[in-house]
Amino acid sequence: MTDDYTPEYASLLVDVAATGRRLTRDEIERRRESGEEAAREGRALRELIGSHLTAVRSAWPEQSLTRRTVLDLLSVVEQSVDAFSAGFERAQRLAVRQEEAERREFIDDLLYGRSDLGRTAERAERFGLRLSQAHAVAVARGPKAYTEADPVPQQVERALIGRFGDRHILLTTKGGRMVCVAPGDQPEVLAHFAKQAFAATGGGQAAIGRPQPGPRGVVHSYEEALGALDLADRLGLDAPVLHAVDLLVYPVLTRDRQAMEDLVRSTLGPLRSSRGGAEPLLDTLTAYFDSGCVTTKTAQDLNLSVRAVSYRLERIHRLTGADPADPASRYTLQTAVIGARLLGWPEREF
Q: Which CATH architecture has domain 133-247?
């Protein structure tokens, strides 16, 4: 059967049998171009190679051939098929690179809101998202930075797709972190993503933003997830999964930064006069409040004796005038401690 991408082997093989020549540069380049065109048309390479071999059989000279002539003919056929395949593969590589570039551009637009929202929503369908509905974003990090080609993100993706199918899920990497975008009414998808990321990274951490509507909602949910990871760093939160909705109080506390700085300075500033500086006493307050104001638990967490913890709490009371055990003073102290952790005090002076 004749194929649009099969050369005129009849005349070519007759010429080669008579002269023993090889393909010229122009002929090889035309075969490569033909392979590229076939790839762009979506043809299957295996089918096309079969067409070539069928054409060769049909055009093979019927007269008796010497061994040298047979080798010449086979060499030209090999040249032709090799050039065609090289062009086909080159076109495929270019298509893959173009697809990857378009996907990365879309992901940047989706997560950062850099492009026209209508255009972003239109392109989203191609990548499996329907931005007319609400979406939520989870971000996971591990001990190293990841790209989409790394084994860890691929392992997480296989686990997620294996359980949920596509379900209009987008998995990618950004800034060395793994990112999952899923419909807002399917929280089980992001929960499973966080679980798989924790396992694949050997104990990493994930944050999940709130479901938000529309293309701009993906940006907001992504920023919430990133903000939750940033809070985890500043507050020393080590939970494997953080939910942005549970951390909303912290941005509220620092919304008026000047007021928070004044509270930290006026409430905790006297701790600087302690012999060891403010840091040990601030750590004690942090552990005390994190333990639910239980002295024995605080001592265990700090690897101190109960007596040492009690002494430190008394020292804090004397220096600040606020008693950590007194409910009336506790709120002010705890708010100031949270503010200090968020603002980086006492390492950072203000």
A: 2-Layer Sandwich (3.30)
Residues 6 or more apart in contact with residue 239 via CB below 8 angstroms? 205, 232
DSSP 146-169: --TTSHHHHHHHHHHHHHH--TT-
Buried b / exposed e over 57-83, threshold 16 CB at 10 Å, is eebeeeeeeeeebeebbeebbeebbeb
At residue 203, the 3 state secondary structure works out as coil
Give residue 3's pLDDT.
58
Taking residues 34-50, report their average pLDDT. Answer: 90
CA dihedral 250, 255, 259, 264 (to 10 degrees): 30
Q: Is 30 exposed, middle or buried (0-12, 13-18, 19+ CB in 10 A)?
A: middle
Please determine, for residue 2, whether its predicted confidence score (pLDDT) is greater than 60: no
Please state whether 344 falls in left (phi above 0), alpha (psi between -120 and 50) or beta: left
Q: Does domain 251-343 correspond to CATH entry 1.20.120.1200?
A: no
Question: Cβ(95)–Cβ(89) under 8 Å?
Answer: no
pLDDT digits (tens, 9 = 90+) for 43-56: 999 999 999 999 99
SS3 116: coil
Cα–Cα nearest to 22, from 59, 64, 88, 74: 74
